[in-house]
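Subject: Prepilin-type N-terminal cleavage/methylation domain-containing protein structure
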Amino acid sequence: MSRTRGFTLVELMVVVAIIAILAAIAIPSYSRYAYRARRADGQQLLLHIANAEERYYATYNKYAGLAAIGYASADSATSEHQYYQASVDVADGAQSYTATATRQGAQQADVCGNLAITSAGVKTPQTSDAAANSNGHCW
């Protein structure tokens, strides 16, 4: 009597179940890392704007909009990888500002929401989920 070689259906189902469990663990973890990496694009844009605003303030003793600090558009600036679009709101007689980076494209589902930085250096995520920034990981 010859025995055929191969895998039984039960063995194949066990392998499929193991792969499904590993995928269920790996995919959400990968997504969190991808959002965090793309978030750095928005952080870089805001820090660049804050740096330009402080240089402008050192020269003119007031803050200004994006066009005055060297950006092509007065309305918005796009991050290097186009995951964020920033705008600047100058207030208090040009003595303070808030720069906000709004999520774009693949970054829209990030739990940290939009990012913001003020002239006082306060960095905040604009999220409704308090637990998302409970340990400061959004900035």
